[in-house]
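[Automated response] Your request has been received and processed.

Submitted sequence:
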Amino acid sequence: MKKVAILQSNYIPWKGYFDIINSVDEFIIYDTMQYTKNDWRNRNQIKTAVGIQWLSIPVKIGGRISQNQTINQTQIADSGWSKKHWNAIKMNYAKSQYFKHYQTIFESLYAECSTESLLSLINYKFIIEINAILGIQTKISWDTDYGLIEGKTQRLVDLCQKVGADEYISGPAAKSYIQEDLFNQANIKLTWFDYSDYKEYTQLYPPFVHNVSVIDLIFNEGENAKMYLKSFNAINGGGGVTKYRYYAFKEGMAS
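Generated structure:
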């Protein structure tokens, strides 16, 4: 039984994003969708001594956001973002237990991404590296690897059919627009991922906050970070999904 999830790329996503990735056999990055401002595509949160801090990648926006600007066409407006973000992370996580263990990995990644012009590819590089850190081996692909059709839900169903999915796992936010009957007609099981009941972990600067970037979990828990994802506990409990290592790097995404 093949499980699939289809989501837009996010910048250094929170743990729930990686929980979904680890719950499926194939994760499809859905970046032909419209770019939306004030969303998770180009920003995320870290913890600091004075509260939550947003790290936002500056992007180029046309005269107005329209269906003509997709996520995979969105370009970076200022290459200096990378150094600023890394300095903020280093300043606020230097005292976390496992920061030094992962410092070189992330410092190199931020340096590499400083020359990248497309938001999608920056997000992709972070997702792939964090997957490796967490031991996630799910196959990663792009929606553009498969022919696309119109219609929000129908496009998802079509992608599932093209990859041979028996079950589609979705985040709960999609309940506002997904037409469940289309999945039923295609004999594809629709499962809503449950983001509740996450365990708290060691975290600097109380009170505890769940919905920060997964790097917070990694720097504070190290190799134990994956045990705070519900999908790892489910797999370890027996069964689980078949895993693949697959780096589907796509060039020329802005064309």
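Summary generated for your ticket: The helical segments are 15-22, 81-93, 99-113, 119-134, 152-162, 180-185, 214-221, 230-236. Confidence is low (pLDDT under 50) at residues 237-255.
If you did not submit this request, please reply to this message.
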